Amino acid sequence: MTPNPSFSVVGKRVVVVGAARSGVAAAQLLVRRGAAVVLTDAKERVDAEHELRSAGVTLELGGHRSETLHGADLIVLSPGVPLTQPQIAAAKASGVPVIGELELASRWLRGRIIAITGTKGKSTTTTLTGRMLDEAGYDVLVGGNIGNALSAQVDQSTERTIHVIETSSFQLQTTETFHPWIAVLLNFSPDHLDHHADLSEYAAAKARIFANQTVDDWAVLNADDRASQALAQDARSRVFEFTLHRELVNGVVARDHAIVLRRGGEDDEVLVPLSSVRLLGDHLLSDVCAAAAAASLAGVGGEAMTRAVEGFSGLEHALEPVTEIGGVSFVNDSKATNIESALRAIESFDDDVVVILGGRFKGGNFADLRDALVARHAQIVAIGEAAPLVHRALDATVRVHDGGSDMARAVRVAFSVAPPGGTVLLAPACSSFDMFRDYAQRGRTFKQEVMKLGEEWLATNEQ
Length: 463
Prior knowledge:
Radius of gyration: 23 Å
CATH architecture of the largest domain: 3-Layer(aba) Sandwich
Number of helices: 16
Strand order of the largest sheet: 7-8-6-9-10-11-12-13-14
Number of domains: 3
Structural class: alpha/beta
CATH class of the largest domain: Alpha Beta
CATH topology of the largest domain: UDP-N-acetylmuramoyl-L-alanine:D-glutamate ligase
């Protein structure tokens, strides 16, 4: 990727909105590039305050001042800060340019971009793609919506670098020139309807991953997911598909005992033996296929892919096995923050699943889980703000227990109703913000309570 030579912030007044990881990285990058930077946040205190002030960033905390935003030459939004926020919308309407942190950083990158998006599976696919490239000896940097913000990678970017970037709808929504060499769309289903105005706005944000691609670029698509195929119909890039269930003449398929590459009638090339995959569930196997597809386009061979997959047991909070207590297994899928992700998690088990479900509702329909739950003789422990919605959607067909707003209680209720040989699965289908700081804190709290329960059970049964 060639940096934009016409884009400069030297001597410009730039306001960064949001002091989370991406906003902090953007503010520091902008200072290094010669801007006068104000970082504003609604919170009264931010973790990186001393670090930011030492770097020369001016902080305005406790709210966003209209006069600061209107006086800016450029506004940079952290992911999740809505364009509709009144002060930002007013500044934009008055002519102040507004872009996101992803867009800002990408304008200065020298290396090529592999960008990965989708409603579920982004983090797993991004991590695995980066591992595959690393095993093959490429100069690779992984980040974006996970790990390091893209702004933290700019100074390390060379013409040899491949940036593997997880991109969310929040980030893509505020892009203008963002140009991936390889754009991966894993799947699409309703999500983030608490942020986006409607499903069409969410879809349009995801489709922006293809907006600036040319005929020299690649769009990697899931042949098993019609909704994501539709989003890519206007892409100018070449299409390369992956699948678990369909036949492809060209693309990456999971067949028999291996993930293989097919090239128009030539002999299949084995990329990864299925025996090397250490992840639960078909949806995670699909993520492995997507990573293999992207990596194969970048020139990675099967041996490097296999080494990467063999050494990867999954991400924390993504169908993460925790422990077994009294014959009941516990699995943490706190990253299942929407209906579709929870459905795929539930479908990863055969029978007798007790699902901890709920939190802050983001849209969708809990009734979409009904068939999978009934087929597995599942029970539900409903938690958080969404508990009444869970009861309303599922009470008629599935046993729903109350877990309240206390993970300790939810874990113990789930264990008390789980049959021997069953599984307690945290797959909330909601965000965590009613009870926790984020999905990671929710998942770790779940694991902590499971381990406490194990100690209690062991003490009781040793007496």
